[in-house]
Amino acid sequence: MTSARQAVDGTASGDASARPTSTRPTSTPRPSDRADGGRRAVRGGALGNYVDQFDIMLPVVTMTPVADRVFGAQHVVAATGWVFVATLLGRPLGAVVLGPLADRLGRTATTQVALAGIALTTALVAVVPDHRVLGAGTIALVVLLRFLGGVFVGGEYSAAIPLAMEWSAPRRRGALSGLVMAMSPWANATISAVVLLLTSVLPGGAYAAWGWRVPFVVGAVLAGALSLYYRSLVPESDSWRAAAPRTRPLREVLVGSHRRALWQVFVLMSGLWLLTQMAVPTLTAQLRAGGHLDARQLSFTLLVATAGSAVAMHLAGGASTRLRRRRFFLGFAAVVVVAAPLTWAGVLAARGLVTVAVLALVLQVVTVTGYAPVGAYLAERFPAGVRASGYGVGYSLSLVVPALYPLWLPVLQRTVGAGAAVPAVLVLGGLLLGVAAWWGPEPDVDAPLA
User: How far is residue 448's CA from residue 239's CA, in Å, rounded to a whole number?
Assistant: First the structure.
């Protein structure tokens, strides 16, 4: 793999002459071994994103229907919001701590540790006693475990996705990014399917009593198995091996030569995170609280919406290579500004399960599909020596304000009206995405990552 790449806005890796010679292992594996290693790394990146999102969305889908039983009726509102938010707030810390470790010590080792942490924290949630035993302590314990899980999630994708992109051929990087990112809605669809199955087959109050714990056990097993997969089968990339070691990769990203790339990525991801918070957890809570759907109907709706958006995301990743990343984001931002608020209004006004499910699908397609090229784009914006730090911090730090929507969305609703608040946030998300795309350069999608 070539070590040179066209410099773009100071974020490409064509500055090799200014760096010391790499002291990392430089032994060259056989072509067949490299090909196998590349496939395993890409497969691991996709599966890792699936496990991450499976873990992130577990409380939203599995616990929302039974929150009163688990946390107590008096704590439902606080619990359903903060249990989800705790995971999101842990992710930036994980990126800040584990992203630089992935740049300094290696992507695969960092991914192994992060996945093991996800497995442990998810398993512990599965055995937390409900409020009849701990009272308000149940919320506190679950929030703590979800926060710690979020730390490990932030570290996992800071290492695993850059590794997958580094192993990808340039012509396939966009499509593989779409595949990796599509694992998020596929994970959501899987959880919805599991909950739909459990609520359909379990007798009486069995789901509320213990059935909701089953998906957490499944998530823990998936994360543990994937940690072993990385330990045994996934090699480091040539890009990381060839890069000169950085002693302070986080500093380079935050205040050094790559700071402009970081803040441009920050704005872009802030827009996408705002879209996500409105189109996924906010919509889920609205459909449930508004009496539109019961627990089974909600699971069916989420299954349809997330599965459909996964297909769209996979296709959009390849399209971003043909169109080029910048043009894709600009076009998608225009679609969001026009279509997202109209679709939101349509979902809430719709009656009938099929109509609601179809419109929820459309809403997710015109919002979260924008993530499709993110894996490739963020990797292209930073050189190998700081790529995990730049990817992780840019991806995660930007979600802090959007993740705090339980605090600021009610204020906005009181200010502009309950019906106008979410459409306004959707428009803002689209505008931020468009501004960031216009601000940033067009990466060289035809060049290997170095």
Answer: 9
Domains of the chain, earliest start first: 31-439 (1.20.1250.20)
Q: Which residue has the higher pLDDT, 196 or 158?
A: 158
CB contact at 8 A, 263 and 10:
no
CA distance 104 to 349: 52
Residue whose entry in the numeric block shows the structure tokens 């071994």 = 33
CA distance 31 to 116: 31
Please say whether the beta carbons of 155 and 100 come within 8 A.
no
CA distance 301 to 350: 13
> What is d(CA 426, CA 13) in angstroms, rounded to the nearest whole number?
35
Residue 57 tokens, joined? 């969305």
What span, in angstroms and rounded, lies between the C-alpha atoms of 176 and 182? 10
C-alpha 401 chain-centroid distance: 15
What one-character DSSP code corresponds to residue 3?
S
Handedness of CA 434, 435, 438, 440 (dihedral sign): negative
- Tell me if residue 266 falls in helix, strand or coil: helix
Cα angle value 388/392/398 (rounded, 5°): 155
Compute the distance between CA of residue 443 and CA of residue 326 in angstroms, rounded to an integer: 8
CA dihedral 79, 412, 154, 89 (to 10 degrees): -50
What is the Cα–Cα distance from 176 to 164, expressed in whole angstroms? 9
Mean of per-residue pLDDT scores for the chain: 86
Dihedral over Cα of 130, 132, 134, 140: its sign = positive
Give me 80's structure tokens: 């359903």
**Integer Cα distance of 156 and 45 in angstroms:** 9
Query: Tokens 């926060």 label which residue?
Result: 147
In this structure, what token pair is assigned to residue 401? 């304000």
Dmax (CA) for the chain in angstroms is: 68
Per residue in 100-120, pLDDT tens? 999 999 999 999 999 999 999
Q: How confident is the model at residue 76 (pLDDT cuts 50, 70, 90)?
A: low
Rounded to whole angstroms, how far apart are CA atoms 166 and 79?
A: 39
Cα separation, 278 vs 344, in Å, equals: 9
Helix %, strand %, coil % for the chain, to 5?
80, 0, 20
Amino acid code (one letter) for 392: G
